[in-house]
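Researcher: Following up on the earlier apo prediction. This time include the ligand. It's zinc ion, with the SMILES given after the sequence.
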Amino acid sequence: MQYPEPIAQLIDSYMKLPGIGQKTATRLAFFTIDMNGDDVTRFAKSLISAKRDLHFCSICGNITESDPCDICRIRRVTRARSWWSNRPRTSW
Ligand SMILES: [Zn+2]
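Model: Understood. Below is the ligand-bound prediction.
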């Protein structure tokens, strides 16, 4: 079936998601068109924000807004403080 271009593009976009075939993508596209405008805007913004603001931590691989993630940053500081407090001491 030939759909108007905006619907066809939406169907193609949904089909890029894992496990979503033509039939489900078409159903989701028509559901999206029927959604409240504010909900569609919030959905679109959340997609853009997730892609723009989230990264994988270069140390542990968790999803994070900053690299390294908070857990790895705290571990790094804790390790540095531990090294500093346990460093060999020399008397001059
Ligand atoms: Zn991490």
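Model: The chain has two domains: 1-36, 49-92.
Researcher: Noted. I'll compare it with the apo version next.
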